[in-house]
């Protein structure tokens, strides 16, 4: 291993900072027309009149598409189901006159320039008949129901069956803790707005530059919804300016751009505005009740954790909110429940650490409060109730779990041992100081993927897979894996992604890309190595006659005998004897189900946070935080650290600032721009530290990696809320904790 | 965005003449607020008069010891100007608490005074808003029903003072968003204006107005007038001042509550006091009677509380923003302490 585990700088960094990296709305194909979406201003009801004449009268406007004149698309719901579609009936843009949520696209104006389209979009006159809407989860907590789990249940398990009798155990518990936690909605808001550039080619061939976390998903959606053969569409997405889950499903601009391009037989781009970034998936509002019972020695005897979340009227979105509680705490009596309520909203959509950040905030806050009632240090309480088995999954052992080490190393780096548990015991000037901690857990998943590795005639390695890099560092770590597998200098290796002409990979989400695509890249490179070795053996005067594959190693661009490094053949020499042709191998990596099914597979973390609270004003600053992470092998400590730091910043945002506020009288989001939708600025972020705890895992995948996209976020909100309690003596259960809740 | 024509005059008279021309013309300088409003169709000018080439971009010392800030000097250049830093550090501090470095590099002193409220309902033409709908001679904006969306809606950032019209009704609870204007109010600045009828001056306190029953009017200038300069009087409170801004994040957020304080002291005794509040009303909020309560008093906390109570007298919360009443009082008491004590000032909030 020469590169894996090293802090290699991003291989795509230069392209990004010099502006050469192109994003979906930057592919300037010839003769491009521009589409701008008109959005519904009501939440529920129907369009009774739609007058496009003023828009069409503008010189340069090509067409206005509405439900009245749209081209025909597929008939059945199933044709609109993408790979991440929850059970239900997917939303179809411009389908009919019914309005299902505020901001729903009601028309697409296509013009010769973006400016003209945007102007003409203003002139489309829509009259609605509005009916009363229901968007407020808090008003419907008595009307929640079980979700229809559908096939995504594999990745988002429903709560396990209850264990023991949680109610009775709670009633009998000498120490009890009970509270309700409320989370509002949030929107992903990546820096890059959603856009699709559809190039209309010869015979109607479509090359689609799409903002997506999975080109294959966009391809499947488009070909099914428009009934186009696979070989008539190519989806390309080499760079993604952030996504955080918003690109897991094809968004409506893709549908509209394809529809317009096919109808007009012309290339069309549709870009959404920042305000329209509030017109599709979001993190759902969630209300949680947590009840815990314990013996005086700190043993948890009863857990009830129930979550109630909002979904749309047309799809049953669900996320895993409460199961984490069971994975972390081994109470003999436990009831975990997850319910949903259909409201007049768009379907929620996975947003960084979906369910995890929500559920862990509740349980990790509750555990802290219970520890105080028990007079125990919150860290000692967690060690007392530590588990090596996962009762939510048939009491399986974990494939690896270095959470204890996360607690130890994180606490040591932070200085937790010197903490005075007494609330309001620390001050700095007129500010109160508080220290809090919490546990984090996330899935370590792997799914099948395919990759292709080619040794070019120049002796360079080219590796491809149709995955995505949403800023996480996929380009870099895949290049490292490929370089190490074939023993090549990293500068001789290029990894490409984001193109449906490449071997398929799943959507990039769930922190599974490093393990999934990494395993595929390794498999393809292993296969290529074997082929190259076979070819080397057949060379005239080959030093490898009678030598087995295991007797050689790939190092410094050559194959050499392990026992005698002077016996070597360079890869360039091997390929040069291939009659001027490159050598290519493709491989599919499939999870080892035997290993997987016998283990629970999770990454773990512990976050330690210091807050400074100005009690008079209620302002809170996270002045210091340490997150210790056990996530298997760290492929690249630089990009991994960046992922954890980003997650910690998001945790600060989630705890203190971020919420899409809806005026429920209208069902409309009110703070729908980045001036009023608050996320931290640099001045909010202080000293953040990351500790990677060594963890060897031979179960999760051949590389031993678990993924780090989400684990840095999940522990932070509870750690911050707990630190605020330590500082002020005040428990605040509803996020975000804005100053008026603290003052 | 609505199509518009564009002119770029080089003389002030020419600019004013341009404005008096076709209907719905607007001056543009930094454009940091106007362009946003045009993109969301709240402002729909037919003509933009770019005034960036007018000779209004200098900061000049006045014979009386005051300072004249050209209307086109950027916020950044003003805040970092040595004479402003020395004599009016309150103004520097207020400007630098606002927006972002990029915006301050573009925004001008004149434009800053005329930025529009950040009320969510004003910015969204699908929502009711009396400020948008009660038609103004130089703008035609918005569709949708009239009424104030923020009343009974989401009003976390909204006003708690001066919202009622003379008949007791409330038509608008928007706030004025400028930090600079709050400092200028405490400094008692004078606004120089020109128009078809010549030049005149307006005290800063009379520039902005309360919404009353005509919330469409943010200010008292006539539609054909142009601000040419801001005049700062000699007294700049360089020894005892502070601008305290409380908001939902540490930077790039409008004030929930802000307090500008300038004091003159004789030992421990206050001899002159100025206080202005931001984020609480349709204009920077000043009440000279409250300031008088400090004169001749020692600068101690028990003398600050009555000032806070006096300034907030008559404050009304509308639900989400009710916390501002207490927050403003606490901020006033803290800001007075910070103004007196340099160490406390540097310690900040």
Automatic annotation (TrEMBL), chain A:
Gene3D superfamilies named in the record: Aldehyde oxidase/xanthine dehydrogenase, a/b hammerhead, Aldehyde oxidase/xanthine dehydrogenase, molybdopterin binding domain
Chain ranges of the Aldehyde oxidase/xanthine dehydrogenase a/b hammerhead domain: 18-132
Domain of life: Bacteria
Pfam family, one: MoCoBD_1
Signal peptide start and end residues: none
Membrane spanning stretches: none
GO molecular function, one term: iron ion binding
Protein name in UniProt: Xanthine dehydrogenase family protein molybdopterin-binding subunit
Organism of derivation: Fibrisoma montanum
TrEMBL record, chain B:
Any one Gene Ontology molecular-function term assigned to this protein's record: oxidoreductase activity
This protein's UniProt keywords: FAD, Flavoprotein
Span of domain FAD-binding PCMH-type: 1-237
Superkingdom of the organism of origin: Bacteria
Annotated protein name in UniProt: Xanthine dehydrogenase family protein subunit M
InterPro entries referenced in this protein's UniProt entry, alphabetically: CO_DH_flav_C, CO_DH_flav_C_dom_sf, Diverse_Substr_Oxidored, FAD-bd_PCMH, FAD-bd_PCMH-like_sf, FAD-bd_PCMH_sub1, FAD-bd_PCMH_sub2, Mopterin_DH_FAD-bd
Keyword Flavoprotein found: yes
Keyword presence, Flavoprotein: yes
């Amino acid at each position: 291993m020469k590169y894996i585990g090293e802090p290699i700088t991003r291989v795509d960094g230069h392209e990004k900072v010099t502006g050469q990296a192109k994003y979906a709305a930057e592919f300037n194909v010839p003769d491009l027309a521009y589409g701008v979406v008109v959005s519904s201003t009501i939440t529920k009801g129907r369009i009774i009149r739609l007058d496009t004449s003023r828009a069409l009268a503008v010189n340069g406007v090509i067409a206005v598409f509405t439900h009245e004149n749209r081209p025909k698309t597929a008939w059945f719901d199933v044709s609109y189901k993408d790979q991440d579609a929850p059970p239900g009936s997917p939303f179809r843009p411009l389908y009919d006159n019914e309005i299902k949520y505020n901001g729903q696209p009601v028309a697409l104006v296509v013009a010769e320039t973006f400016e003209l389209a945007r102007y003409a979009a203003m002139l489309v006159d829509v009259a609605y008949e509005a009916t009363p809407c229901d968007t407020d989860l808090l008003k419907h907590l008595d009307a929640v129901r079980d979700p229809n789990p559908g096939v995504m249940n594999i990745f988002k398990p429903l709560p396990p069956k209850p264990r023991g009798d949680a109610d009775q155990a709670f009633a009998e518990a000498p120490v009890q803790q009970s509270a309700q936690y409320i989370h509002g909605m949030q929107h992903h808001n990546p820096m890059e707005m959603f856009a699709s550039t559809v190039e209309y080619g010869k015979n109607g061939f479509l090359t689609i530059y799409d903002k997506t976390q999975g080109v294959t998903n966009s391809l499947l959606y488009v070909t099914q919804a428009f009934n186009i053969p696979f070989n008539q569409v190519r989806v390309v997405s080499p760079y993604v300016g952030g996504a955080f889950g918003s690109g897991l499903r094809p968004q409506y601009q893709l549908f509209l751009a394809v529809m317009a391009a096919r109808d007009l037989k012309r290339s069309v781009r549709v870009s959404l505005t920042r305000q329209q970034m509030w017109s599709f998936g979001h993190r759902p509002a969630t209300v949680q009740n947590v009840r815990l019972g314990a013996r005086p020695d700190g043993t948890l005897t009863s857990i009830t954790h129930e979550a109630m979340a909002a979904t749309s009227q047309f799809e049953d979105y669900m996320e895993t909110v409460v199961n984490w509680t069971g994975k972390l705490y081994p109470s003999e009596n436990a009831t975990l429940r997850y319910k949903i309520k259909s409201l007049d909203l768009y379907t929620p959509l996975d947003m960084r650490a979906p369910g995890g950040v929500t559920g862990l905030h509740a349980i990790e806050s509750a555990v802290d409060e219970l520890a105080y009632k028990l007079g125990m240090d919150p860290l000692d309480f967690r060690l007392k109730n530590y588990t090596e088995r996962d009762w939510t999954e048939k009491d399986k052992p974990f494939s690896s779990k270095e959470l204890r080490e996360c607690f130890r190393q994180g606490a040591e780096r932070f200085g937790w041992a010197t903490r005075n548990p007494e609330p309001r015991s620390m001050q700095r000037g007129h500010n109160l100081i508080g220290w809090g901690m919490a546990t984090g857990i996330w899935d370590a998943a792997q799914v099948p993927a395919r990759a292709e590795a080619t040794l070019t005639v120049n002796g360079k390695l080219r590796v491809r897979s149709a995955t995505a890099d949403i800023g996480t560092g996929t380009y870099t770590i895949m290049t490292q894996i490929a370089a190490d597998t074939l023993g090549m200098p990293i500068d001789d290796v290029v990894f490409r992604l984001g193109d449906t002409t490449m071997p398929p990979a799943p959507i990039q989400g769930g922190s599974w890309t490093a393990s999934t695509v990494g395993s595929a890249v390794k498999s393809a490179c292993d296969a290529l190595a074997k082929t190259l070795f076979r070819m080397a053996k057949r060379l005239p005067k080959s030093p490898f006659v009678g030598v087995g594959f295991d007797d050689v190693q790939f190092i410094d661009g050559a194959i050499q005998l392990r026992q005698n490094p002077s016996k070597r053949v360079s890869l360039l020499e091997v390929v040069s004897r291939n009659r001027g042709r490159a050598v290519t191998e493709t491989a599919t990596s499939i999870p080892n189900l035997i290993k997987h099914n016998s283990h629970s597979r999770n990454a773990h973390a512990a976050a330690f946070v210091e807050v400074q609270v100005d009690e008079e004003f209620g302002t809170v600053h996270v002045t210091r935080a340490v997150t210790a992470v056990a996530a298997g092998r760290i492929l690249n400590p630089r990009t991994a650290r960046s992922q954890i730091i980003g997650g910690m910043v998001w945790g600060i945002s989630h705890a203190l600032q971020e919420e899409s506020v809806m005026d429920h009288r209208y069902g409309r989001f009110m703070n729908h721009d980045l001036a009023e939708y608050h996320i931290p600025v640099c001045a909010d972020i202080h000293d953040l530290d990351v500790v990677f705890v060594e963890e060897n895992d031979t179960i999760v995948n051949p590389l031993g990696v678990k993924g780090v996209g989400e684990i840095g976020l999940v522990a932070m909100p509870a750690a911050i809320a707990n630190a605020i309690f330590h500082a002020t003596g005040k428990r605040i259960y509803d996020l975000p904790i804005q100053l008026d809740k603290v003052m | 965005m609505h199509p518009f024509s564009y002119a770029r005059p080089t003389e002030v008279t020419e600019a004013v003449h341009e404005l008096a021309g076709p209907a719905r013309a607007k001056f543009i300088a930094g454009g940091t607020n106007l362009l946003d409003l045009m993109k969301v169709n709240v402002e729909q000018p037919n003509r933009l008069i770019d005034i960036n080439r007018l000779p209004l971009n200098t900061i000049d010392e006045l014979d009386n010891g005051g300072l004249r800030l050209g209307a086109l000097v950027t916020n950044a250049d003003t805040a970092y100007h040595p004479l402003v830093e020395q004599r009016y550090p309150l103004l520097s501090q207020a400007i630098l608490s606002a927006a972002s470095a990029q915006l301050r590099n573009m925004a001008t002193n004149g434009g800053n005074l005329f930025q529009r409220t950040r009320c969510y309902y004003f910015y969204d033409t699908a929502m009711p808003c009396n400020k948008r709908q009660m038609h103004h001679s130089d703008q035609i904006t918005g569709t949708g029903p009239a009424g104030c969306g923020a009343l009974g809606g989401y009003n976390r950032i909204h006003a708690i003072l001066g919202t009622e019209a003379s008949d007791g009704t409330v038509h608008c609870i928007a706030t004025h968003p400028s930090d600079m204007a709050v400092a200028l109010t405490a400094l008692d600045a004078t606004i120089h204006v020109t128009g078809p009828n010549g030049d005149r001056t307006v005290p800063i306190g009379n520039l902005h107005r309360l919404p009353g029953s005509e919330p469409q009017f943010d200010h008292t200038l006539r539609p054909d007038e142009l601000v040419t300069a801001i005049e700062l009087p000699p007294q700049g409170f360089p020894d005892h001042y502070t601008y305290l801004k409380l908001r939902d994040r540490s930077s790039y957020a409008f004030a929930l509550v802000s307090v500008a304080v300038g004091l003159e002291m004789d030992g421990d005794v206050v001899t002159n006091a100025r206080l202005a509040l931001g984020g609480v009303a349709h204009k920077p909020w000043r009440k000279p009677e409250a300031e008088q309560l400090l004169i001749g008093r020692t600068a101690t906390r028990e003398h600050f509380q009555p000032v806070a109570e006096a300034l907030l007298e008559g404050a009304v919360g509308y639900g989400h923003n009710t916390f501002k009443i207490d927050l403003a009082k606490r901020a006033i008491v803290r800001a007075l302490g910070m103004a007196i004590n340099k160490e406390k000032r540097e310690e900040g909030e």
